[in-house]
Specification:
heterodimer, A: about 250 residues, alpha/beta, Rossmann fold, six-stranded mixed β-sheet, B: about 250 residues, mainly alpha, 10 helices, about 80% helix, globular
Chain lengths: ~250, ~250
């Protein structure tokens, strides 16, 4: 896929506007273009529109105005199964099923490919189970495969969520405030694992984050949002200089 | 300050008015009632345990009716509650499913039993269907509300894997709601055991028929034995529920 006939583009947003109520725009004229295989971090203070932008890019929320495409296909016009082969989404609270084991949660990444009744009985093809264990291994928690999610720590849950998305095999992964609740060392280790896995699978990663140090470690590019607009010429931690953001640091 | 007193003062006024209308301040009548209660109590003691073989067989029938009726009702309530979940189906499908559940729930279990006695004749089969019908109406409503409350983030995350509606039910709604599903099922079983003990009054089998006979023939010592039997079963159910909860409920959240 080429944008303007020149560079290949993984995620393209053109003049995206969004409001929950009329004339109260949460996103204002957002245009961005993210190349394949790059890791992009979106930063900004609370209420700047980061989560809304991510949900629109993931095809979960339809923009009020404008257009979003992933590898040339409009995300909110695709069927869920088609979209799942393009985009993986990890919400802020991870969206794990607490009463199921880590392995069962990871196996859910394969649901878009499986149609048979056996799956409904919890019987997944052997190949999928092996790949799910590999994904857990890649995240360093293969030994926790049989543990219910409610028994896992915050960091372990983050790894399960990533492993589930890896099993889905999307070309783009969008993660909302990922690793934001973890201590710096653990967050750094998990992000390093994600980076290795993403490079191995050639996944384009877009992540909301509010820690500038982690953003610099993880992101090839950092985009800054303020009041629903992309901040041009963003420099370092300037965007976070608000009382709310400082309190969270 | 004055506005804070409006609700409690109004409530207290209506309570007193209702109590007066219902005869709670007719002291002579109340005193007579308490005297009769004492007489009834003395006529029930000691309970006549000689009827245990007869009452035991009827009790077993009551337990069978409750267990089978509750499970049949549960199996029918699950799909109805899924259709009643607006997160899975369009609003009109959900409305129809919820309307059906509300309609079934409106009819008391005793009336259901009478209806099934007319359909299938006297005996525990009618009672079992009566219990199943009421259970459907109750559990379908509770479960549909439970499924509606499933964490939207989990649905979005698993939905974004391309999961179908049926897969969402299997891998999100049921496991996320497992604790509440089991708790409500156990509650319903306890409730149905108590409820089914009076279904015999309308010829729907079980202990109710025996109770009715002892009431009509004023054999209160025998009635006391039957009530003791019901108490034993209810206590046993409490113990069973506690064990099931401890054994199977997950300490999630």
């Amino acid at each position: 896929m080429k944008a303007n006939g020149k560079e290949p583009v993984a995620v393209q947003a053109d003049q995206v506007w969004f409001s929950y109520r009329n004339h109260d725009w949460v996103l204002k004229n957002i245009s961005l273009s993210i190349p394949p295989g790059k890791h992009t971090v979106i930063m900004g203070p609370s209420g700047s529109g980061k989560t809304t932008l991510l949900r629109i890019l993931a095809g979960i929320t339809e923009p009020g105005k404008g257009h979003v495409a992933v590898f040339g296909q409009s995300t909110y016009e695709l069927e869920p199964r088609e979209l799942s082969s393009l985009v993986g989404y990890i919400p802020q609270q991870l969206g794990l099923v607490r009463n199921l084991t880590a392995l069962e949660n990871v196996l859910m990444g394969s649901l878009g490919r499986l149609f048979d009744a056996k799956t409904l009985l919890g019987l997944f093809p052997r190949a999928e189970s092996e790949r799910a264990r590999e994904a857990l291994d890649m995240m360093g928690i293969a030994h926790k495969a049989a543990e219910p999610v409610f028994c896992l720590s915050g960091g372990e849950r983050q790894r399960v969520a990533i492993a589930r998305t890896l099993l889905q095999h999307p070309r783009v992964v969008l993660a909302d405030e990922f690793a934001s609740d973890l201590d710096l060392a653990l967050a750094s280790e998990i992000l390093a694992r994600i980076r290795r896995a993403a490079e191995r699978e050639n996944i384009t990663f877009i992540m909301n984050m509010h820690r500038i140090g982690l953003a610099r470690q993880f992101g090839d590019e950092v985009l800054a949002l303020r009041d629903g607009e992309i901040v041009p010429g963003f420099i370092g931690n300037e965007i976070l200089e608000t009382p709310q953001a400082e309190a969270r640091q | 300050m004055r506005s804070k007193l409006v609700v409690p003062v109004t409530s207290a006024f209506f309570l007193l008015a209702a109590l007066a209308h219902l005869g709670f301040f007719d002291w002579q009548r109340l005193a007579r009632g308490f005297r009769n209660l004492g007489i009834l109590g003395s006529e029930m003691i000691p309970p006549d345990m000689g009827i245990l073989p007869t009452a035991g067989a009827a009790l077993w029938e009551t337990v069978e009716m409750s267990f089978a009726g509750t499970l049949l009702g549960f199996l029918a309530a699950l799909p109805l509650s899924i259709f009643g979940t607006r997160r899975l189906f369009s609003s009109w499908v959900a409305h129809i499913a919820r309307f059906v559940a509300a309609g079934i729930r409106t009819i008391p279990v005793l009336l259901w039993a009478i209806a099934f006695v007319i359909l299938f004749g006297l005996g525990p089969l009618a009672g079992t269907f009566g219990i199943a019908a009421y259970t459907v109406g109750y559990l379908a409503k509770i479960y549909a509300d439970l499924f509606e409350g499933t964490d939207p983030e989990i649905l979005e995350a698993v939905g974004s894997t391309g999961a179908s509606r049926l897969q969402l039910v299997r891998f999100v709604f049921l496991p996320e709601g497992a604790n509440a599903i089991l708790t409500q099922l156990l509650f319903m079983l306890e409730y149905n055991i108590r409820a089914s003990s009076i279904l015999g009054f309308v010829g729907a089998g079980g202990l109710g028929f025996v109770m009715q006979v002892y009431l009509q023939t004023l054999e209160y010592r025998r009635l006391a034995s039957v009530l003791l039997l019901i108490l034993v079963v209810v206590l046993a159910m409490d113990g069973l529920s506690a064990w099931v909860r401890k054994r199977f409920l997950l300490s999630a959240q």
